[in-house]
């Protein structure tokens, strides 16, 4: 293959080790087989995405019991204003 099947330009041979292929510097054709059809993935729901995010990023820690201050249930005394 001396001529590009797309643009009829001259082809360059590219090789790496025992493998070689041809490429067109004009239209960027490459003689590499590819699959252009793909199977669409099932979309991830927002709930699943957020759950995955929190599972991966939020550190897993045991809840710590917080002791209340001795006077936590009492009403605070009002502060007198100075006019």
Automatic annotation (TrEMBL):
It comes from the Archaea. Residues 62-83 are annotated as: Disordered. This is TFIIB-like protein. It comes from Halopiger aswanensis.
């Amino acid at each position: 293959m001396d001529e590009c099947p797309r643009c009829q330009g001259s082809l360059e041979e590219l090789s790496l080790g025992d493998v070689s292929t041809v490429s067109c510097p004009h239209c960027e054709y490459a003689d590499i087989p590819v699959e252009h059809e793909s199977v669409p993935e099932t979309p991830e729901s927002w709930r699943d995405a957020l759950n995955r995010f929190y599972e991966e990023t939020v550190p897993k820690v045991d809840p710590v019991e917080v002791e209340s201050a001795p006077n936590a249930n009492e009403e605070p005394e009002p502060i007198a204003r100075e006019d």
